Amino acid sequence: MRTPLFIALPALGLLAACAVNPDRLDAPQGKAFERIVTNAPGVASIEHYEVLLPAREHLRYGNQFSGGFGAYLPYAPGSGLSYRSTEADGRLLFWGLGDRGPNGDSPKVEIKGKAQASKVFLTPDFVPRIAEIRLTPGQHARVTRTIPLSYDGLSASGLPLAPGNTGATGEVALDDRLQPLAYSPRGIDPEAIATDRAGNFWLADEYGPFIVKTTPRGQVLLQYAPGKGLPEILAARQPNRGFEGLAITPAGKIYAAVQSTLDVDGKTKNLARFIRIVELDPVSGATRQFAYPLDLDDYKRAGDVKLGDLVAIDDSHFALIDQGEGKRGTRNVIYVIDIAGADDISARLSASGKALEYASAAELASLKFIRKQRVLDLRELGWKPEKAEGLALIPGGFAVINDNDFGLKSEISGDKGADMGAYAVRDGQLNHQGRYSLKPSQEATQLWLIRLNKPLQNWFSR
């Protein structure tokens, strides 16, 4: 059982802790606000904000690695982003989104002679939540409140779903002492957010992949799953590569982007030449699927491509983030795409009668893919984080936010060096005299406002 933190505090420390203002903001790791000078074509201005947290939004932590983090971990609201409104005084309001909670890569776990993937969860009781972010232009951006997610009155969890369930990743959840944790029937890994006209939230869940509808208070109303409202083939998503982007068009249709290529039969993640984007009509329940073409010349393997987020410009045009480790380093590229005229691939198969992911380039020559046009590369503007995972339209341009993985990174050392894959957990212990740790990454949550010289609606050549 975790020892309550206050037991170890002297009386004066306890009084000081009780006196902390829950609205006190973090000191920024860098600058709370910075204007970035750029001569990039098409870009009028760039504003960089470090998203600040009030003390009440920190996650209490006092276990194995508290020497590096102290008593708290920072909440990370950058897995998804949606523009809400601009207030009369010019402040911008956004909805941000945290994913399944502080977790780190860890060695495989050997169970009955079989090696299974694992993740270490530092705060297993974490409840995934939505964040309201208020940005004061030229000053700062801050989280003003959060909305926890729940199912039938019970708190959601970030822990994986049990094997055999739709959305199970095959991962073993471990605590920070490498001991197994229980699976959760309410596990959710939210990665994108949008709101409908009634104020309900729609979330992309990476576990399923699922599309989740909640009330404005975060209570789950509906969950669409492969075979239950969504095409069954989506169950072939790569583990932890389910839906990553989600958008709602003015007509009210839902669009969800799988993060990466499907891995049908465990054979197609590097064969496929496209990523699926799904259309859902929440009124009729009808779905369609479209093929987003990959920039295969820029990546070593098709399976390395990851989509970040998706946002609707109108009923057929969207902006999205295309990213991953490319041949020449990390890519974070924003495209405008057009689904009008793209083929519905729901019933399309390869020449051999298998899933379309098996089809060769020659077979796909007649397929009408989603059209795409590059807008800019965030890296060329000075973007440093690995993951640009939230994208929102704002007046005159768009906003981008990074997922900093709750500001932590995992490390391992021992007889096999620093390669995580060279070790295994057996009966709760690392082999090869391994030493595992999670440390602060020093990466803050960053929110960029990028304004363009022409409306994004006019960017695509029609």
Q: Can you offer a commentary on this structure?
A:
InterPro entries: 6-blade_b-propeller_TolB-like (IPR011042), Phytase-like_dom (IPR027372). The chain is mainly β and about 450 residues long. It has one domain: 5 Propeller (Tachylectin-2, Chain A), CATH 2.115.10. It is about 5% helix and about 40% strand. The chain has two helices and 33 strands. The protein has helices at about 10-20, 65-70, and strands at about 35, 45-50, 60, 70-75, 80-85, 90-95, 105-110, 115-120, 130-135, 140-150, 150, 155, 170-175, 190-195, 200-205, 210-215, 220-225, 230, 245-250, 255-260, 275-280, 285-295, 305-310, 315-325, 330-340, 370-375, 390-395, 395-400, 410-415, 425, 430, 435-440, 445-450. Strands 1, 2, 5, 6, 9, 10, 27, 28 and 33 form a nine-stranded mixed β-sheet that branches. It is globular and about 55 Å long. The N and C termini lie far apart (about 60 Å).
